[in-house]
Amino acid sequence: MDFLVWILFGLIVGWIANTFMGVRRRGFFKNLLIGLIGAIVGGWLGSLIFEIGTIGAFTISGFVFSILGAIVFIWFLRLLKV
């Protein structure tokens, strides 16, 4: 069950980040990948910046940092022109 919840979480985060960055027509798997990588990057950055340990996925701070991480990941992909 946790696997399905993480997939849903990754899709939502990826879709929000793509919408915020003005990206159009990303598919199901790209949104999922961006969302899941964004959650990892956001959690890592949040724990480094605020020194609070791990950030839970299903808290407001975890959700916000996941979206911010996905935005950073999209920005990085744009730098690489991918």
Tell me what the structure shows:
There is one protein chain. Helix 1 packs across helix 2, helix 1 (2-20) crosses helix 3 and helix 2 packs across helix 3 (60-80). Helices cover 77% and strands 0% of the residues. The protein has helices spanning 2-20, 28-50, 60-80. The protein has one domain (2-80). It is globular. It is mainly α. The protein has three helices and no strands. It starts with a helix and ends with a helix.
* Biggest sheet statistics: none
Cα-based radius of gyration, to the nearest Å: 12 Å
- Could you give the count of β-strands? 0
Number of domains: 1
Backbone structural class: mainly alpha
Shape: globular
Helix and strand element order: HHH
Query: Ends: how far apart?
Result: 33 Å
How much β-strand is present in the residues? Answer: under 5%
Q: Mean pLDDT, as a whole number?
A: 79
Percent of residues in helical segments?
Answer: over 70%
The low-confidence parts are none
Number of helices: 3
